Amino acid sequence: MKIAYVDGYKIRQTLDTDFGAIHSHSVIPTQYSPKFYIPEGQTWIDHRFKKETAFLLKEDAWYRSIKKNYHLERRRRMEKMRQFEEPAAFVKRKTRSKGLSVLYVDGSVIRQHIDFEFVCGGHDLVYDYIPEKTIWLDVTMDPRDLPHVLLHEMTERKLMSQGKIYEVAHEFATAYEREARRKTGGIYQGDPGYPLGLTKQQFLNKYVKKYEILKG
């Protein structure tokens, strides 16, 4: 397996706002946010999550093995995780914004002990383990990502509190997030000035920081 450690911040700024910690090639139209731009045979990991490589690869393999009821299988796995020891302290910093508690957390602890899929951020109206009126932000991310993810989570939570389902609220929040990213240099497909005509190698050079071959 060829692993590419990539600049996740740059991907979220110029290509795919829904890029998390790890993704593999996919062109399945029914999959959420398929990663058609990742070459076949490669797995891309945000370089800031490199120390979690083994764990992330294991979880990515589990995700791709699900054939039917993903939500049921996820719930079963999380129930098993919670039967073991309590997680170590994971809160790094606390603030408040617009009546909400904002906790900056060590996402690696949460992934190991609470929710193996937690990445970037979340709030109480999506994740039942997050306290009421609280947003969590993963400090593993590039610090430049944090204000944009906070805006996303606050927008999404506000819309869900008004009755919108998660999927719709997430789409609105993504639009707000992209607009905020544009103000800090972000640019996306279809925007004036977006680079066109890149060769495959030029595209890869833009995002990949380092390749490694996983043996065994």
Could you walk me through the main structural features you see in this protein, from its secondary elements to its overall organization?
β4 (91-97) and β5 form a beta hairpin. This protein is an alpha/beta fold. The model has no long low-confidence stretch (mean pLDDT 92). The chain has two domains: 1-65 and 186-216, no CATH class; 86-184, no CATH class. The chain has seven helices and eight strands, in the order βαββααββαββαααβ. The strands form two sheets. A four-stranded mixed β-sheet has the order 2-3-1-8, sandwiched between helices. A four-stranded mixed β-sheet has the order 4-5-7-6.
Annotation keywords:
2 domains; 19% strand; 4-stranded mixed β-sheet; alpha/beta; 216 residues
Structural class: alpha/beta
Biggest sheet details: 4 strands, mixed
Radius of gyration: 18 Å
Query: Which geometry do the CA atoms define?
Result: globular
Number of strands: 8
> Strand fraction band?
15-25%
In what order do the strands lie side by side in the largest sheet?
Answer: 2-3-1-8
Helix content: 25-40%
Total count of domains: 2
Mean pLDDT: 92
Order of secondary-structure elements:
EHEEHHEEHEEHHHE
Tally of individual helices:
7
> What distance separates the N and C termini?
9 Å
User: Which ranges are low-confidence, i.e. pLDDT below 50, for 5 or more consecutive residues?
Assistant: none
